[in-house]
């Protein structure tokens, strides 16, 4: 049993429960009130996560929070370290900004009576993300993966037209396949270790691993690692399993697209990080062949995602395809199997989340001033008609391509550094990194040039940022966040290093 | 054969009515029950044409397999690969299972201190005679709270899909409520009158005895929900709404979940901070005992019953 705890240490539990309460209460409230409840909860969560981060960073070590009267192997517990608290803070900020940036579209695209439901979904989505981040118990993680999956389906289909419903069905099938594989892996892991608590599983897995290939549970362990990795890879849209992604991100309402691309898939990736470090153990995972498969699929995703994006004529779907390439980067980093690769991946999770939500929200401003058309040809000159959205799109594109001062540059640099340290995987990683950067530049710069190509007279109207202040504010915050990650990357990197050390 | 009663008197007895019904000379339901056959579902001509046009459009624009040979080949490739992938996955999992420890073996890894404490000290620590309930609602209370919220969020998603928001649509759905079912089915109503109270009482029994006997909030709530669905099918929404309408549904659901959440957060915070838990465990075996399990079971039961009923009502007519 832990001794006397400080009040700050309750904050992770409070923030999860607060989101749940907000969701529950919102079901009895009108849409407008639910919106304010949601805003208030997000702001409180940002504050609480920041306080937790400050506390853990000052203390220099993780702490365990027992959820109930019974300590860990019997009860549930949360485990709070620097990386967890930082990730929670970051997710809350991105969610707040995404909702702010997409609010005017939500009002247009979603039926009047269903706005309340949208905020219920986002509240519960956030609670599940926070629980995934903080939990130290594999089964709790599964329960919240379920909440996450269902609310993600709701977020896609709340804008009701044929494409979104089709996308939601596709997402549900693929995502449930992922959940199913994860659950099978979880069951087998429980069968061979007899535990659900992450730290206890890791100790047992180490025993099995040390027993070597002749040990009785060697093959189940290998299959378990594969099944869990593939399950989470499907849910986070790694290359061959990405078929659900373009429609789901391309046609849902813009806040949903931003939340799905930058938070939902990242939540699963973070869970994978946790499983690698805390459940399977870094060495065991490294010695399995699965890591090479992740590396290869990551590389393929980087190229094929970008190629699909080049071919795409719909700006929202183009950004969605670019996500596949970026998820590929993250898996490539995991697949390198080095500490540096992991750090690069974690940094890219942050960088991609900040950039992709910015791009989605900037793109909606551009399509709005092009008569709602998403075709690239119609977007010509839209950067002049909505200056704020144009500038934000440029910033996002530069970051994705990897221009210095923006966050994308740092993550590419980290990936390259990590690749250099790895003998075998250096060459393929560097070559593909180069090709992918060029491909990124082709489709993003093509779009940027197009939106700044002057056209003479158009029938489309222009908007200024005074007309939609919340939208402009969200974009400015996103740009600042991107530049912050790009310029002040060192403190963030230090936090990631300490966090990963606390992880293990 | 001599009769003790005269013909006139005999016609008043129950036996006379019964034998007449048995021989088929009079059916008592004729006239009392709507006997017209169910209307067959007819699609309007315009809908059919529109659907065909859409299918044609999809065929022409998206899956033009007639002219696009590559797409055609890819589809076959895709199907074959999908089958191969499934087969490989199936074989892989079956082979893996053969390496797993046999069920019930003493040396099985999950026969460890965790299970031992649940079994040996479960009753003493949670006050619940039913170990499973004790385990899911006290030892692993957080998981179960998440699981209850899964139901909640599932209802929200069904609402997004099926809730009729449009006023005109709502009215139409209301009028057409029993389009494909006979009204006032005397048999169904008769059976429901007898069964529904029993089902409700049994559901309540399962919930309240959750910590004493097999059962608990989830199964009891499902039972009550089934009772509600039976009642609605027999008597229609108008009569159900006298005691269970949208307002009550919302109030019950929000109250139950909030109560659960508050109990949960009290339990987590006192546990984590090492504070004293003021909820007494009571005497094991008594109905009001087992600390937080008893109220939580009631909350879960209400939530599950509401969810079951809401699913049925939403699928049937897009509203509660």
Give an account of the 3D structure.
The complex is a heterodimer of chains A (504) and B (320). With 504 residues, chain A is an all-alpha fold. Chain A has helices at 11-26, 31-59, 82-109, 115-134, 138-157, 162-193, 198-210, 218-235, 245-251, 254-280, 282-287, 290-311, 315-336, 339-368, 382-385, 387-401, 407-421, 426-451, 469-487, 489-503, and strands at residues 63-67, 76-80. The longest helix of chain A has 32 residues, at 162-193. Chain A is globular. Chain B has 320 residues and is mainly α. The model of chain B has no long low-confidence stretch (mean pLDDT 82). At the A-B interface, helix 1, strand 1, helix 4, helix 5 and helix 6 of A face helix 4, helix 5, helix 7 and helix 11 of B.
Draw up the topology in text.
The complex is a heterodimer of chains A (504) and B (320).
Chain A: H1 11-26, H2 31-59, E1 63-67, E2 76-80, H3 82-109, H4 115-134, H5 138-157, H6 162-193, H7 198-210, H8 218-235, H9 245-251, H10 254-280, H11 282-287, H12 290-311, H13 315-336, H14 339-368, H15 382-385, H16 387-401, H17 407-421, H18 426-451, H19 469-487, H20 489-503
Antiparallel strand pairs in A: 1-2
Chain B: H1 7-10, H2 14-23, H3 45-62, H4 69-99, H5 113-126, H6 131-139, H7 141-162, H8 167-175, H9 186-208, H10 217-240, H11 246-273, H12 293-317
Helix pairs in contact in B: 5-6, 6-7, 7-11, 7-12, 9-10, 10-12, 11-12
What structural keywords apply?
heterodimer, A: 504 residues, mainly alpha, two-stranded antiparallel sheet, 2 strands, 76% helix, B: 320 residues, 12 helices, 68% helix, 0% strand, extended
Based on secondary structure, the structural category of chain A is mainly alpha
How many helix segments of chain A? 20
Q: What percent of residues of chain B are in strands?
A: under 5%
Q: If strands are numbered along the chain, what order do they take across the biggest sheet of chain A?
A: 1-2
Number of helices of chain B: 12
Shape of chain A: globular
Q: Oligomeric status of the shown chains?
A: heterodimer
Span of the ends, CA to CA of chain B: 61 Å
The run of helices and strands of chain A is: HHEEHHHHHHHHHHHHHHHHHH
**Number of E strands of chain B:** 0
Strand composition percent of chain A: under 5%
Radius of gyration of chain A: 22 Å
Order of helices and strands of chain B: HHHHHHHHHHHH
Based on Cα principal axes, name the global outline of chain B.
extended
């Amino acid at each position: 049993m832990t001794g006397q705890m400080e009040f700050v240490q309750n904050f992770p539990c409070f923030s999860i429960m607060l989101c749940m309460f907000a969701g529950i209460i919102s079901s009895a409230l009108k849409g407008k009130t639910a919106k304010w409840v949601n805003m208030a909860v997000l702001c409180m969560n940002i504050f609480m996560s920041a306080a937790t981060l400050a506390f853990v960073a000052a203390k220099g070590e993780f702490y365990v929070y027992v959820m109930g009267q019974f300590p860990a192997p019997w009860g549930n517990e949360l485990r709070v370290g620097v990386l967890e608290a930082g990730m929670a803070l970051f997710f809350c900020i991105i969610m707040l900004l995404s909702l702010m940036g997409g609010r005017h579209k939500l009002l247009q695209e979603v039926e009047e009576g269903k706005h309340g439901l949208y905020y219920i979904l986002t509240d519960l989505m956030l609670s599940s993300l926070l629980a995934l981040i903080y939990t130290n118990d594999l089964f709790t993680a599964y329960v919240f993966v379920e909440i996450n999956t269902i609310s993600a389906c709701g977020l896609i289909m709340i804008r009701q037209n044929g494409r979104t419903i089709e996308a939601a069905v596709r997402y549900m099938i693929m995502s449930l396949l992922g959940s199913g594989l994860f659950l099978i892996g979880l069951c087998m892991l429980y069968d061979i270790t007899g535990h659900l608590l992450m730290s206890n599983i890791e100790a047992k897995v180490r025993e099995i691993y040390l027993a070597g290939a002749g040990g009785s549970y060697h093959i189940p362990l290998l299959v378990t690692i594969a099944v869990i990795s593939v399950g989470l890879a499907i849910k986070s849209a790694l290359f061959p399993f990405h078929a659900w992604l373009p429609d789901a991100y391309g046609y849902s309402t813009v806040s949903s697209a931003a939340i799905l691309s930058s938070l939902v898939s990242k939540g699963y990736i973070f869970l994978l990080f946790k499983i690698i470090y805390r459940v399977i153990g870094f060495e065991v995972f490294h010695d399995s062949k699965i890591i090479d498969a992740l590396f290869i699929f990551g590389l393929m995703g980087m190229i094929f995602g970008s190629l699909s994006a080049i071919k795409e004529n719909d700006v929202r779907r183009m950004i969605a395809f670019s996500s596949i390439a970026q998820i590929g980067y993250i898996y490539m980093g995991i697949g390198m199997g080095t500490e540096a690769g992991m750090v690069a991946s974690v940094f890219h999770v942050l960088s991609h989340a900040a950039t992709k939500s910015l791009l989605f929200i900037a793109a909606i401003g551009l399509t709005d001033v092009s008569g709602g058309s998403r075709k690239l040809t119609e977007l010509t000159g839209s950067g002049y008609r909505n200056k704020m959205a144009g500038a934000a799109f440029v910033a996002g594109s530069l970051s994705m391509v990897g221009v210095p001062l923006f966050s994308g540059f740092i993550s590419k640099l980290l990936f390259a550094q990590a690749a250099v340290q790895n003998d075998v995987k250096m060459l393929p990683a560097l070559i593909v990194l180069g090709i992918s950067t060029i491909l990124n530049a082709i489709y993003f710069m093509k779009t940027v040039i197009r939106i700044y190509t002057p056209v003479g007279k158009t029938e489309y109207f222009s908007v200024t940022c005074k007309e939609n202040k919340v939208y402009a504010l969200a974009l400015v915050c996103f740009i600042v966040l991107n530049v912050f990650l790009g310029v002040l990357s060192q403190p963030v990197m230090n936090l990631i290093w300490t966090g990963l050390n606390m992880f293990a | 054969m001599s009769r003790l009663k005269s013909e006139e008197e005999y016609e008043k007895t129950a036996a006379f009515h019964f034998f007449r019904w048995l021989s088929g000379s009079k059916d008592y339901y004729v006239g009392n029950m709507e006997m017209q056959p169910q209307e067959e579902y007819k699609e309007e001509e315009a809908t059919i044409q529109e659907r065909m046009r859409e299918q044609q459009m999809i065929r022409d624009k998206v899956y033009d397999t007639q002219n696009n040979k590559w797409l055609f080949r890819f589809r076959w490739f895709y199907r074959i690969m999908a089958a191969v992938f499934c087969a490989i996955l199936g074989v892989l999992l079956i082979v893996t299972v053969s390496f797993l420890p046999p069920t019930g073996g003493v040396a099985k890894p999950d026969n460890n201190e965790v299970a031992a404490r649940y079994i040996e000290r479960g009753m003493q620590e949670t006050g619940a005679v039913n170990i499973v309930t004790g385990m899911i609602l006290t030892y692993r209370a957080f998981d179960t709270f998440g699981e209850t919220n899964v139901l909640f969020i599932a209802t929200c998603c069904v609402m997004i899909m099926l809730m009729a928001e449009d006023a005109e649509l709502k009215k139409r759905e209301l009028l057409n409520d029993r389009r494909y079912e006979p009204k006032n089915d005397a048999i169904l109503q008769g059976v429901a009158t007898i069964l529904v109270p029993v089902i409700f009482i049994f559901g309540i029994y399962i919930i309240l005895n959750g910590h004493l006997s097999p059962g608990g909030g989830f199964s009891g709530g499902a039972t009550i929900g089934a009772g509600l669905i039976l009642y609605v099918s027999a008597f229609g929404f108008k009569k159900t709404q006298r005691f269970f309408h949208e307002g009550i549904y919302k109030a019950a659901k929000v109250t139950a979940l909030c109560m659960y959440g508050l109990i949960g957060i009290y339990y987590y915070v006192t546990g984590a901070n090492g504070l004293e838990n003021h909820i007494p465990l009571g005497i094991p075996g008594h109905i009001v005992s087992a600390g937080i399990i008893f109220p939580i079971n009631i909350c879960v039961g209400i939530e599950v019953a509401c969810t079951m009923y809401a699913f049925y009502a939403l699928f049937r007519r897009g509203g509660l």
